[in-house]
Amino acid sequence: MLQVSNLCKSFGTVKAVDNVSFTLEKGQTLAIIGPSGGGKSTILRLLNGLEQPDNGSILINGKTSGTFGLVFQDYNLFPQYTVLGNITLAPRLLKKDYSHAEEILEKVGLLEKKNNYPSQLSGGQKQRTAIARALMLEPDILCFDEPTSALDPKLTEEIVDILNEMKGKHTIIIVTHDMDVMRGVADKTAVMDGGKLRWDE
Amino acid sequence: MVFLCFLIVGSFAANAAGTYEAADEEPFMGSLQQGDFTLPSDNEEPLARFRRITLDLLDGFRLNIVIFFVTLVLALPLGMVVTFGLMSKLAPLRSFCKIIVWIVRGSPLMLQIFIVFFVPGLLFDTPMRDRMLAALIAFVINYSMFFAEIYRGALENMPKGQFEAGKVLGLSKVKVFFHIILFQVIKNSTAAIGNEVINLIKDTSLARVVAVSEILMRAQGYANLGMIWPLFYSLVFYLAATAIITLLFGRFERRLKRATGE
Question: What is the pLDDT of residue B12?
């Protein structure tokens, strides 16, 4: 279970995240929607350790040692590695097991592209590589930053399918401005605006 | 300030020269003997003369090649070290590196060779005896600064997301740099580095200002004695070298492109 309490983050005088608290049960999918600049990306960055909070705590099962995975909006794949290279880089360097790499590629439907470089992939394939890369380290919580913003409608559907397939098996947080798409996917929806989080029933 | 900077560099050079000389006695000065530039007697066969001068110029060009490779091998990595200094979080270190880069890039290489060669003797009474070594030190320092600025540009243009993707995967800064960033910095620097490398092979002839008997110095020696063609002939050596370098760099660039599947 993810428990976020009193999370605060300011940039200068702007309160990007203003005293946000929420909980998320294991296996649930949470969508955070809201206008850009509303602070929703900052929450993901705080969860993933890309920003340090000014205040507040992030606990997974009561501990601070939980792990997060992040699928970036523009994927940030490593251009000099193949699909397989991209997803095994971290476990290889961290001396962790990566024998499940092909299994994960199979799951996201990319096994036949395993020896391709990112420059040879379509937008949807890049995104699935990014998902596979995040899944390799078996994070407690998987985060998506604007997963549908860079894709055309057909690929958006494809990603929604993948998200639906992952639903229940992983604990997921999706940040998006695309309300309509995500309402079907998410168990819970919250709106983030002006640094405040409010629940959308 | 400029003076002070070279003073430090020069004293380091002088020490290095001392140890270097103990091991090897001025290996590059062997051909700088008077006999080299005597005008051949009139009865020398034209073809024999051409052959003799070609070999002499080639022997001089050997020194240009040595300066070229030593500078590349040392300055390419050293440039990256300077880049770290330029981008350091420590403001004093950053300013120091910026000043050094400004001084070195902002002054003629010829003058820098003079300074490395003469200043240790003038100030510390430890004359720089090895002319080649003085030239090499000046070249390495000069070119590291140019390379550093090229790397800095490439590093600053790296998408922030590459660093963040590495960090999110739990990789340390060092691992992110060596396994993710470095390749891309090299790839994005090759065109600019290629330019500098072409400049370098031409710049090597500046070593003659401290009497390193490289190709142009020898050609000029013939010119001073009234025979002008070896000076023009030396052009062939430079053009051959730049052609080879251009070819090699083109291959290297294509290889880097292949490494990203392009």
Answer: 42
The verdict on ipTM greater than 0.85 is yes
Q: Which amino acid is at A5?
A: S
pLDDT tens for residues A4-40?
999 999 998 888 999 999 999 999 999 998 888 788 8
Partners of residue B257 in chain A, C-beta under 8 Å:
none
Domains of chain B, first to last: 44-259 (1.10.3720.10)
Q: Which residues pair with A171 in a beta bridge?
A: A141
Q: Which of A76, A117, A118 sits opposite B161 (nearest CB)?
A: A76
pLDDT tens-digit readout, B12-40: 444 444 433 434 444 444 444 444 555 55
Distance CA A97, CA B129 (A): 58
> DSSP secondary-structure letter at B113?
H
Bridge partners (DSSP) listed for residue A92: none
Q: What is the CA radius of gyration of chain A?
A: 17
Longest dimension (CA), chain B: 79
**Answer CATH for A1-67+140-201 from 3.40.50.300, 3.40.50.620, 1.10.287.990, 3.30.1330.10:** 3.40.50.300
Q: Chain A residues with CB-CB distance to B under 8 A?
A: 48-50, 67-70, 72, 74, 76-80, 82, 89-90, 93-94, 116-120, 133-134, 137
**Closest B-chain CA to A78:** B180
* Entry pTM: 0.83
- For B167-178, give the DSSP string: HHTT--HHHHII
**Rounded-to-5 percentages of helix, strand, coil across chain A:** 30, 30, 40
Q: Distance between CA atoms of B10 and B121, rounded to whole angstroms?
A: 9
Angle at B164 between CA B162 and CA B168, to 5 degrees: 125
The pair of structure tokens assigned to B24 is 């090897």
- What's the rounded Cα separation, in Å, for the pair A178 and A38? 14
pLDDT category at B245 given cuts 50, 70, 90 is very high
